[in-house]
Amino acid sequence: MENENANENSLGNTGNFIHTYINEDLKGELNRVHTRFPPEPNGYLHIGHAKSICLNFGLAKLYGGKCNLRFDDTNPAKEDTEFVNSIKDDIKWLGFDWEDRLFFASSYFEKMYEYAVLLIKKGKAFVCDMTAEEMKDARGTLNAPGKESPYRNRSVEENLDLFERMKNGEFKDGEKTLRAKIDMSSANINMRDPVIYRIAHAYHHATKDKWCIYPMYDFAHPVEDAIEEITHSICTMEFEDHRPLYDWVINEIDFPVKPRQIEFAKLNLSNTIMGKRFLRALVEEGKVDGWNDPRLITLSGIRRRGYTPESIRKFCDMIGVSKANSIVDTAQLEYCIREDLKDKTPVIMSVLDPIKLIITNYPENETEMLEIENHPENESLGKRQVPFTRELYIERSDFMEEPPKKFFRLSVGKEVRLKGAYFVTCTDFVKDENGVVTELHCTYDPETKSGLNFMGRKVKGTIHWVSVPNAVKTKAMLYENLTVEDENDEKGYRFNPNSLTIAENCMCEPAVKGAKPMDRFQFIRNGYFCVDSKNSTDENLVFNRIVSLKSSFKPNLK
Ligand code: ATP
Ligand code: MG
């Protein structure tokens, strides 16, 4: 069914080059599409992985095929079950389902060993005693061929014997390797007798101490794909030059199913840190609050920040798939979450940096309940009662002692509209001994209730407010990009010292009472916020700002 609807696939962009390849294949003998998402469980997933997940699961859906989740756990040192669990959670959260097809590359170690033995028997692999250093020296360059290993012509019997002894733990790490016997003068350096097995006396999270030899990625990956009968092995551009080796492994072992490797360009995002290696360093150095710090573009980080799975999928649709590397503006991701939240999120008032406003002609001890709509356009979100009193909090930045010409908010003598309430005119202000304004005095006009009787009155500014005696004091975490570009730094960027600002006295209207982790609100003029899932409690609410309201990104709408 999905096939008929190629225009509405989860990839959004029809006719990308991967579709073209697959369509070609389906015209031939192939009659099914089977992809896989193959994370290495050595860290948490990030938004780049989301692109790969949407692509792989999206292709399966589009072509009525299947997509496996396969942990590529062939590297014992850095892998952990904590990561396995987080990866599963993140994929489910994104909205994808591997059904009963959860696999671990490590469960194929036995088969991989047998395939390596097969290559030895065919005279296509040999045990080499060269050190890593010697191998590097003999590898040649882009312009010069490599030199053959002196061990290249060992007999099949000797190779079988040595390889078995490697497996049995008779040698130290690095003492021997198993290499494919291909072509030391190949123009493609990856084809110059690459190492396919190495010795590592290391504990593996799944196979424990069973193995002390481990397959290299370039050998393991095609074998994993072939065992699972994958038809299209989608990977990122850095593997393009490895494709001949991928095909060599598939052909030499003579698998009945010959998966096709297709490369696409990685997602890069401006002003943030993407690679797992760098993310891990930030976490280990304590620069961020764990893998799910809301500033990180890990999926657990942006989820905690308040991004929805819909917004991430929409983003992956928008950026599309190509072979050309580029950097996507973070503003585009922000655009997607605003688009997703704008119609369905209740709009309420909260003051991030409060200053007191006292309405001197409003009765003391009086509370008026004002009815305000929960969304300016979406009536289905209903209305709420908002308490109005003599003392209010407003934003400090909504008052200026000496306003410039185009300042339409409060200053002495100016009138503004309080959102959903009355017009007030500032008459006076109070400063403390440091010259900081602490209090504004205003008068209100009872005739202007809910802005009804304002016809003919020129009031340009509308500001938000929260009743002092009814305010709920909360904490709001305000984020900026994690890094800023810096030409003088060798990395090209540096850590942004303003990536987190905490509004310790964020005063909210009572509507936030009882808000639960992951509940979302738009705070008028201040952005979209989400209740933090780690540090928020019923008594002490903590909000993460998902995104501010202003966008610098203009979508290219066709
Ligand atoms: P990192 O460099 O962040 O560690 P990785 O490629 O080593 O990424 P893997 O766990 O090996 O991480 O990747 C799983 C899958 O996700 C691979 O198919 C990989 O190509 C893909 N992937 C990783 N990073 C990106 C990215 N930035 N954009 C698109 N796909 C990505
Ligand atoms: Mg990796």
Keywords, please?
24% helix; Rossmann fold; binds magnesium ion; seven-stranded mixed sheet; Glutamyl-tRNA Synthetase, domain 3; 558 residues; single chain; alpha/beta; Ribosomal Protein L25, Chain P; binds adenosine-5'-triphosphate; 24% strand; disordered N terminus; elongated; 29 strands
Your description of this structure?
With 558 residues, the protein is of the alpha/beta class. It folds into three domains: 11-109 and 218-335, Rossmann fold; 120-215, Glutamyl-tRNA Synthetase, domain 3; 347-467, Ribosomal Protein L25, Chain P (Beta Barrel). 24% of the residues lie in helices and 24% in strands. A hairpin with a 5-residue loop joins β19 and β20 (437-445). It is elongated, with a radius of gyration of 31 Å. Bound molecules: adenosine-5'-triphosphate and magnesium ion. Adenosine-5'-triphosphate (ATP) binds next to α2 and β8.
Question: How is this fold's topology laid out?
Answer:
Blueprint: H1 17-27, E1 34-37, H2 47-62, E2 66-71, H3 81-94, E3 102-104, H4 109-121, E4 125-128, H5 132-138, H6 156-167, E5 177-180, E6 195-199, E7 213-215, H7 217-227, E8 232-236, H8 243-253, E9 260-264, E10 268-269, H9 276-284, H10 299-305, H11 309-319, E11 327-328, H12 330-341, E12 347-348, E13 350-351, E14 354-359, E15 368-373, E16 383-388, E17 391-395, E18 415-418, E19 423-431, E20 437-445, E21 462-463, E22 466-467, E23 472-479, E24 483-485, E25 493-495, E26 500-508, E27 520-523, E28 527-531, E29 542-547
Parallel strand pairs: 1-2, 2-3, 8-9, 10-11, 12-27, 14-20, 18-21, 23-29
Antiparallel strand pairs: 4-5, 5-6, 6-7, 13-26, 14-17, 15-16, 17-22, 18-19, 19-20, 23-26, 24-25, 27-28, 28-29
Helix pairs in contact: 2-11, 7-8, 11-12
